[in-house]
Amino acid sequence: MAAGTLSPGCPVEVTDFFQVCRGSVAGAEGPLDRGASCWRRATVRRPVFERPHSAGPAMTQMLVPRTPTGTIPLSAAYSDPNEPRPQRVDLDRIAKAVREILFAVGEDPDREGLLETPQRVARMYAEMFAGLKTDPGRHLAKVFNERYDEIVLVRDISFCSMCEHHLLPFTGTAHIAYLPSGKVVGLSKLGRLVEEVARRPQVQERMTETIADLMEDRLQARGVAVVVQATHTCMTIRGVRKPGSLCLTSAMRGVFRTDAASRAEVLDLIGRKD
User: Fold this and answer.
1) Could you read off the pLDDT of 171-187 as tens digits, one per residue?
2) Which of 54, 101, 159, 183 has its CA 20 to 30 A from that of 222?
3) Do the strands 247-254 and 64-65 form a parallel or antiparallel pair, or are they unpaired?
4) Is 139 a catalytic residue?
């Protein structure tokens, strides 16, 4: 079998993990966010890896995954179609603007250390704003019929977004809980939802509301709770300069908004440290 190809006939290993699971898990749904905690049983299907049989001596340590669909390039096998990608971004225009900023602050954009900075910054903005023209709710389209009707909580979903007031990053974690109404969604999709909502000029308050509205609208959940906590560099490295400060926002929908006992239960689960 040639290097860089996948062979047919792909058995899979099934891994079950229960209650709180931590770490980065790569499955059919894509990687779960590192450090995320999930409060329901999950099943992850992993490809089984084999060593090439006819490769030369230098190839003996390469692991090649098998797939039931035939041979495809490795690059295609590991590409992520769900990842937000920049659309309609004028990189040249951004680079020219960054060059003007460097002139304006008294720098020389033609010196060695800054020569390629405008292009780097342009690519950075394209990456940070990759969710601007997308529909994050598309990640909630695939659902599974289940009779489970208790709280589903994915906690500690890390994110990085860009404050639209100063174009400085704010980073933190999001916690999403919902009460299913006969349908559940893949846990990794909640991580993708947060990632895509964050990849645009944002304020934390709107980000929290957007995630809650999408969960309620697309899943028809009986209750939705979203809590976001973040550190804003526009407050820690400039202006008032208060490092260590933390902003906490929440959005409640359905029974989590109307029933005090349900709201207390979900907030207790979110706040647990175990």
Assistant:
1) 999 999 999 999 999 99
2) 159
3) unpaired
4) no
